[in-house]
Design brief:
binds adenosine monophosphate; alpha+beta; 5 strands; 2 helices; globular; single chain; 5-stranded antiparallel beta sheet; HIT family, subunit A; 20% helix
């Protein structure tokens, strides 16, 4: 989608530190990391947020989870990490392209703030 920063990263039009990619998903390091390891895992196709996913996206959502596992392994944090999506502004979503945050490398508090 025009004007979507994550679509531009997926298309290679904006640089990012890519740590995993396949035909349907791409993962890259967050510009403003909240933990020693902080990556974002996104579908290449523009889906604004998790609640915008439809029945036909079930396979893609599964692939995103597997991409997260591969990202965790690449970053060598597969033993302990958090995978979270902010769905909607009040939940902290600032980029309207579905993404999972993978956070690791420090003690993660629960409940999150
Ligand atoms: P959220 O607030 O859940 O929508 O998360 C958006 C995340 O995208 C934030 O953690 C930002 O630091 C990150 N971000 C925004 N622009 C970029 C970019 N060009 N490259 C990497 N991460 C980005």
């Amino acid at each position: 989608m025009a004007d979507c920063i994550f679509c531009k990263i997926a298309a290679g039009e904006i640089n990012a530190r890519v740590v995993y990619e396949d035909a349907d998903t791409i993962a890259f390091l967050d510009l403003n990391p909240q933990a020693p390891a902080h990556a974002l895992i996104i579908p290449r196709r523009h889906i604004p947020r998790l609640t915008a996913a439809e029945d036909g996206d079930a396979e893609l959502l599964g692939k995103l989870q597997l991409a997260a596992v591969r990202t965790a392994k690449f970053l060598k944090v597969e033993g302990a990490f958090r995978l979270v999506t902010n769905n909607g502004k009040a939940a902290g979503q600032s980029v309207d392209h579905l993404h999972y945050h993978l956070l690791a490398g420090r003690k993660l508090l629960w409940p999150p703030g």
